Amino acid sequence: MHIPDGWLSLIVSVAAFIITAIFWVISFRKIKLAEQQVPMMGLLTALFFAAMFANYPVLFGTTAHLLGAAVIGLILGPFAGCISMTIILVLQALLFGDGGIVSLGANVLNMGVIGVFIPCILFYGLNRTFKLKSNGTMLSVVFISAFIGDLLAAVGAAVELSLSYGVFPYALNVTLPAMFINHSIIGVAEGVVAVIIVGTLLKLRPDVLQSSPILGKLALFQNKPEESIL
């Protein structure tokens, strides 16, 4: 899903960077980590920094990879999640050339904004609506949130590429089905990984989840009135 330099038009790259910069400013102002979450942020950042280098063959001879954006956002909150994903993408671009420098804003927009905020908002909304009380139901919503977040991040990349038609050789009728189908497959793996990580923390370190701005709102942890995450 990393878009290299030369695949996006300058207008699309600049527009994506401006939108992403707005989320950077908001995230740096809003981030607030509990003591239990500080080492978890480092651990998750390192984990998915490495996981993104493992590309998996999918349909049409292309590849996809895990993002980890959803589970990072759900555990740390969307603001810390956005910063964590930004760190990952900046290091990958600068050290390994995985994703471009000019297209960095677009890559962070897809994986660090859409991939983080959408699952958080979706999980938060479903929890407010249905008051998730059982582990099984909660983990099912974690899976759904991670799957949809991965899928929409891929759709975002497809739209950006298609808007650069002329610089990039394929229009939306090609980019959207390719990204949608491929990440429908990898999205399942994304959901499974999210369930495994959250489920493990639920058993071994529930205090980390209780400190989360998202998962800490669960009735499993508290019964006080919920507050907005944004």
Largest sheet: 2 strands, antiparallel
Integer average pLDDT: 90
Widest beta sheet: strand line-up:
1-2
Continuous helix count? 8
Q: How many β-strands, per DSSP? A: 2
Calculate the terminal CA-CA distance, rounded to whole Å: 27 Å
Number of domains: 1
Instruction: Give the percentage of residues in beta strands.
Output: under 5%
Unreliable segments (pLDDT under 50, ≥5 consecutive)? Answer: 225-229
The helix/strand class is mainly alpha
Radius of gyration, in angstroms, nearest whole number = 17 Å
Question: From the coordinates shown, what is the CATH architecture?
Answer: Orthogonal Bundle
- Dominant shape: globular
CATH topology: Arp2/3 complex 21 kDa subunit ARPC3
Report on the structure:
A two-stranded antiparallel sheet has the order 1-2. The protein is 68% helix and 2% strand. The C terminus is likely disordered. The chain is globular, with a radius of gyration of 17 Å. The protein has a single domain, classed as Arp2/3 complex 21 kDa subunit ARPC3 (Orthogonal Bundle), CATH 1.10.1760. The chain has 230 residues and is an all-alpha fold. The chain has eight helices and two strands; from the N terminus they run ααββαααααα.
